[in-house]
Amino acid sequence: MDGTDRAGLRTRAPHAKAGTRHTSAVTGPVRTCVGCRMSDSRSALLRVVVGGHGDLVPDLRRCLPGRGAWLHPTGECFDLAVRRRAFGRALRVSVPLDTTAVAEEIATHEQNRPSSGNQP
């Protein structure tokens, strides 16, 4: 099959492979983590915005004004985002950003996260 029906209309996306369908287990709003670049539900990500003094501010209630960047609340994603300078790019700012408040929020989140049970 070439991706068209008898009338010549396209039946699947041109980039889709035959026999595959796009399925997603995530429901509701989906955002992309600026650290790992993986998509996830909005509720699983931490939103950060630029504060008044050029610092990153965790937006725990997701209601602060301005452009936001989304991040998995893990140290790995935070380190990737800092290393790639993803916060400045996502938030469209060219000045260096103070990430202290976000690092503290992630550390707090990781302390409160239940252990996975596979550690000795």
From TrEMBL:
Pfam families: YlxR. Gene3D superfamilies: YlxR-like (3.30.1230.10). Coiled coil: none annotated. It comes from the Bacteria. Residues 1-24 are annotated as: Disordered. Residues 31-106 form the YlxR domain. This is YlxR domain-containing protein. Signal peptide: none annotated. InterPro entries: YlxR, YlxR-like_sf, YlxR_dom.
